[in-house]
Amino acid sequence: MLLELQNLSVSYGKALALENVSLTIGEGEFVAVLGPNGAGKSTLLKAISRSQPSTGTLRLRGESLKGLPAHAVVGKGICHCPEGRRLFPELTVLKNLMLGAYLRRDAAAVAQDLRMVYSLFPILEERGPQIVSTLSGGQQQMVAIGRALMGKPSLLLLDEPSVGIAHRLKIEIFDAIKRIQQGGTAILMAEQDAQSALRIADRVYVLEHGHVGREGTSAELGADDYIRQAYLGVS
Q: CA-CA distance, 120 to 160, in Å (whole number)?
């Protein structure tokens, strides 16, 4: 098993954002987390990347991640592409991408991974010298995903990659995310676009009010009457 969470809880002061959340991700698996705003999806990803303190069990390939700082978790192979992208707006596309490899010393492999990012998102090679704040929202999302990939993750955390993006670019980005998984990288994606998530993920967890309300394969949840009504708008 790549990642195991058992009874993970997160509080913001007295407010409980996640309570006793348990989930697993296998090597190379694509798992989506669905849920409404405020359900705890972003908090879950922050807890895994150790940018948010938590209680409970959190293990990567059997090794506990508790107590590790966020940069050490990146070194273990977990890279987080946060909601809102969090790019360096006045730096170029290329410099933003290369910042994702700041822990790496394998220059040849870094160059190879940069070519891989360009193969996923060809527009980024063309826009390499361009200041990232001048890109469209969809292109900035490509940079954010590419920057996370430059860390060479075994687990890629994606937080709401489709927010604020034109439909055409959203389809392109989701197709690229699926190709990333097909290349061997496991993915945990928090997403509100349930239809797209169910189309490309292997398994799905549904977070509601800080708890796992439902879980199953994409096919199982796609056929679930509650999911169809609440998340797909199908009666």
A: 19
